[in-house]
Amino acid sequence: MADNDSSSIGWFLAGLGLGALVGVLYAPKSGKETRDTILQSANEGREYLSSRSQEFKGQVNTYVQKGKETLGRSKDQITSAVEAGRQAYRDAVEPKA
């Protein structure tokens, strides 16, 4: 069984090498042109990721700000409700004069 696995890996690596060789032989551009194209694509990808991350950061900041505002309003409402409950309790417990 181990001989079969190592043989399969060997054939896979041979096929991989042969495919790479055929790819280089039939490449439509020279090596320098191909490297320049890859470098340009990598730079475009980096710029795209940078711009998307800035947009994402802006969206996150917007959501955080909205969340803070919502929490502030909720806190005010809860505080008002607790105070109203306390006042109602005081009114109910205190004897009327």
pLDDT < 50 runs, ≥5 residues? none
Which term fits the overall shape? elongated
* N-to-C CA distance: 99 Å
Beta-strand percent range: under 5%
Rg (CA only) = 34 Å
| Number of structurally distinct domains | 1
Mean pLDDT: 85
What can be said about the biggest beta sheet?
none
Give the structural class: mainly alpha
Helix content: over 70%
- Helix segment tally: 2
Summarize the helix and strand pattern as letters: HH
* Total beta strand runs: 0
What does this structure look like?
It is a single chain. It is built from two helices and no strands. With 97 residues, the chain is mostly helical. It is elongated, with a radius of gyration of 34 Å. The protein has one domain.
Label this structure with key terms.
single chain; 97 residues; mainly alpha; 2 helices; elongated
SSE arrangement:
Elements: H1 2-25, H2 31-93
Short overview:
The protein has 97 residues and is an all-alpha fold. The chain has one domain (2-93). It has 2 helices and no strands.
